[in-house]
Design goal:
Layout: E1 11-15, H1 19-30, E2 34-38, H2 42-50, E3 66-71, H3 85-91, E4 95-97, H4 99-110, E5 116-120, H5 125-138, E6 142-147, E7 163-168, H6 171-175, E8 184-187, H7 195-198, H8 201-213, E9 217-221, H9 225-236, E10 243-248, E11 256-260, E12 263-267, E13 277-281, H10 291-306, H11 311-320, E14 329-334, E15 337-341, H12 348-355, E16 361-366, E17 368-369, E18 384-390, H13 394-401, E19 407-411, H14 413-426, E20 433-436, E21 440-441, H15 449-461, H16 463-470
Length: 475
């Protein structure tokens, strides 16, 4: 835990008692603050009370006593309408902040300049965050990994000169962190997202820009027009002590960090291409397949380089990265067949990345369909040997696939996994891929994509016995 001492002896309103909210409450209490916590849900309030957190209905509280309102990131600050606590805080002149802001204040007060790598972007930020942490750990560094990736930032050990915090930040968290000033700030990419919470794409991009604007080293993508413009603006207005470097996963750059072919390079400004420094290779990095992961790898290598890692340490980190669960996760191999859990692919855009990364695919697909269905994936149908339909989307997806590629209605994941495995091993592909990349939400049959992916993993573990039985007991 990181005790929040910067609010010692002060009264703090806290709204939202999920995982990060409870962690924040305990960190404030440990630091000596008087916490007045509330949640709209009875479950959250009961959980907090059972853990000794004081409850205070903020709708009727005396707001003049509060030094701050700490808002959980999932609560609207501006759009579509501010949460009811927001106008109460503003009317009383009470600042509104989040848990990452509390961490930043502790760092500034007690460990100024402690290594702090903050990562944001629309896509790939979890993979990039986990890859950076893995690379640094493999190199022997003391790493604390958390934030939006899972572990609340205040549940981590406190900042220190010998410890590197690697923190994924959502736009909601950045919006509540006015003093965000990481050692290394990373902005991977931007595409329209969370517009319901930010109002416009311009507002969304402006929030994301704040993470790199306050960084000592700003690593900014150049592979989309939004981040390209942000990087150019930052470079033109950089503070004397600030370094702004471009990063690309798609092409060689005149300077900066980039992937060319399957290799990651750093090229210094003014140096010719032949003097570019080779940081590592993606050949053999099975958890980093696909063009989207080339971008993630470029940013991770850049962060490692800026943290002082040797080229060999960066290369090792790329090759040994195991990947994140449910994101093109290799969960098993049976004879020639590789089984890949991409349950996180809950829409067509996400499934596209997996389909573009493999061939000879036996595709398990379906669930609760998103708008647009799988029609955008038609250019990848040539990579698919057969599809196995599950869940509520089966009828719609069958209409799209009809006449384009073979498919089978399986209804449930266990049936689909078994049929796909048997077909993959019976046919002649050198390395058939049984791919769960549903392009759908899970809610028709599973509570979330994690449970769906975990179920697939367990089903794969049980396949050898099923395959043996199908063959009449022959292994």
């Amino acid at each position: 835990m990181t005790p929040v001492t910067t609010f010692r002896d002060k009264h703090v309103a806290l709204f939202g008692l999920g995982g990060s909210g409870l962690a924040t409450a305990h960190a404030l209490i440990a630091g000596g603050a008087h916490v007045h916590a509330w949640d709209d849900g009875e479950t959250g309030r009961a959980r907090a009370a059972s853990q000794g957190v004081r409850l205070d209905d903020l709708a009727t509280a005396d707001w003049s006593q509060f030094a701050a309102l700490v808002l959980t990131p999932g609560v609207p600050l501006t759009h579509p309408t501010p949460h009811w606590t927001v106008p109460l805080a503003r009317a009383a002149g009470v600042e509104i902040i989040g848990d990452v802001e509390l961490f930043c204040r502790e760092r500034n007060a007690h460990a100024y300049g402690a290594p702090f790598v903050a990562i944001t972007g629309t896509n790939g930020k979890s993979t990039t965050t986990a890859l950076i942490a893995h690379m640094l750990r493999e190199a022997g560094r003391d790493v604390q990994l958390g934030g939006n990736i899972g572990v609340p930032i205040l549940d981590l050990e406190p900042p220190s000169d010998e410890r590197i915090h690697v923190i994924e930040c959502s736009s909601f968290q950045i919006d509540l962190t006015p003093s965000l000033n990481p050692t290394i700030g990373i902005l991977i990419n931007l595409t329209p997202d969370h517009i319901d919470r930010h109002g416009t794409m311009e507002n969304y991009a402006a929030v994301k820009e704040r993470l790199v604007a306050g960084a000592e080293v700003a690593l900014v993508g150049v592979d989309d027009p939004y981040t390209h413009a942000i990087g150019a603006r930052l470079a033109a207005n950089a503070r004397p002590e600030q370094r702004v470097a471009p990063v690309s996963g798609l092409r060689a750059l005149d300077w900066g960090f980039y992937v060319e072919g399957s290799e990651v390079y750093y090229r210094e400004l003014g140096h010719p291409p032949e003097e570019a420094e080779l940081l590592g290779a993606l050949t053999g990095a099975r958890a980093l397949r696909g063009a989207h992961n080339a971008q993630n790898a470029a940013f991770a290598a850049a962060a490692g380089w800026e943290c002082g890692l040797e080229d060999a340490e960066i290369a090792k980190g790329l090759l040994t990265y195991p990947g994140l669960p449910h994101r093109m996760e290799e969960v098993g191999r049976i004879e020639r067949a590789l089984f890949v859990n991409d349950s996180k692919a809950t829409n067509a855009d996400a499934a596209e990345k997996a389909l573009a990364s493999f061939a000879d695919i036996y595709w398990i697909i379906g669930g609760k369909a998103k708008e647009g269905g799988i029609e955008p994936l038609r250019p990848y149908f040539s990579r698919i040997r057969k599809a196995y339909l599950i869940g509520a989307a089966s009828d719609d997806f069958a209409r799209t696939l009809d006449g384009a590629l073979p498919y089978e209605r399986c209804e449930t994941l266990d049936v689909a996994t078994q049929r796909a495995a048997l077909d993959a091993l019976a046919e002649g592909a050198a390395e058939p891929i049984v791919l769960l990349s549903p392009a759908c939400a899970s809610y028709d049959q599973f509570p979330n994509f994690e449970v769906r992916g975990d179920t697939f993993r367990k089903l794969v573990q049980g396949l050898p016995a099923i395959i043996a039985a199908h063959r009449g007991g022959k292994p």
